[in-house]
Write a structure and sequence with these properties.
six-stranded parallel beta sheet; 21 helices; 12 strands; 46% helix; globular; Fructuronate reductase; mannitol-1-phosphate 5-dehydrogenase activity; 6PGD_dom2
Length: 497
Amino acid sequence: MAVTVGASRLGLGVLRRLPAAARPLVRPGTVPAGVVHLGLGAFHRAHQAVYTEAAIGAAGGDWGIVAVAPRSTALVEALAAQDNLFSVSTLSAAGSATRVVGALSGVRHAPSDPYAVVALLADPAVRVVTLTVTEKAYQLDPVTGQLCPDSALAADLAGGRPPTTVPGLLLRGLAARAAADAGPVALVSCDNLPANGRRLRGLVDQAVGRAAGVPTGLVDWVAGNVTCPGTMVDRIVPASTPETIDAARRALGVTDLAAVAAEPYAQWVIEDDFPGGRPGWEHAGAVLTGDAGPWERLKLRTLNGVHSAVAYLGALAGRETVADALEIPHLADVLRRLIAEDVAVSFTPPDGVRVVDYGEQVLARFGNPAIRHRTLQVATDGSQKLPQRVLHTIADLRAAGRSARWAALVVAAWLRFALGHADDGRALPFQDPLAGPIRAALDAGAQNPAGAVDAVFALREVIPVEVAEDEEVRADVIAWMTALERHGVEATLAGAR
């Protein structure tokens, strides 16, 4: 990221120069670490770190965060140079506000020293491990939940070398924790996965059961000492850009190379199952519950599913951002029909929540012109995202004997996007861990939309069998894909009934 660095960098030495409202609630170095976070990305910094700092400020506790980057060193280096401080700018049409966050007690780079991360996971002071590593890092089949290790994870399971994957780090960390009798720990997935707590539990149990060289009794120790509370997380956090850095510099008067920007809205729903204790997140506005499932389905299907719809249709129509895409004629009306006629009747929402009202709030958030969330960013990794965002909606609707026509439009838009060209002929990047098989399937069925749909529907690692073998769903997807290919997004939406 090319930016012009000012004379002063954010750090402990400049805190007194910051506007009072921009100073952190917690001074780094004053709160010992009790949380390890895997995945040092923008979302963590704008979400869990903000909640945790507010919880420490309100309720105290030794809950500083040591955040671990699984790949890039750039952010680790930037934060280390800034005494682990960074800023979050909250953006809306009415203006922006920037505040420095001091929740991080330290940062680590896993590839540089994986055994240091293993030691952190085994530290008895650490009682909570949170994760934002995206769907891909779990290496679970999105349909069956079975572990599908790539060569790196297979090597981690075989042992004999430093771990290089997130499951490998967790496996070795738990083994070291058990050997040290370091006490119980909660592993908390904050990724957009269906039943993310149960998915993480399945990953851990399968990895422990399949790993070579783990201590005798580790399976029993994990069963008795490790919990995986489910969560639902929500905040729109676009990728940081040079403009993000420049805006933070103008607000703070110093340079922050780890700055992030986010919308005003944030939500965190957490199942309260923490055997070693936890931060007082409820004092920061989090919802503590016995079952995050209804909240998770509300968000995955209504917000994330609609986000994917806007991303694919918007990218095909040549719109750069989600807010730009919402200006496409008739798109908002089609999205409202998707929410009301498909999503809202596919599941039981949390008590007191009306899905249609929640959907209106979602559309208002997506229309925030200050949040430049790129359609191409949201459109990545569709094979990992669509099962929980859209395909489960379709499966539940069809099991109840209902049509899933509007959800089928989202699947068709994804397939049309995967062909790699927009309505005006411009090339579109197709970034997906299953890009090879999907492109091969599309090429095999290239003679017509029906052939393309049949070929992709045969990919069981993407399309659940009950969806793939449903003739009504197949016909709807083919019809939408045919219309998109022949007429483009705008004409297809104009003719949608």
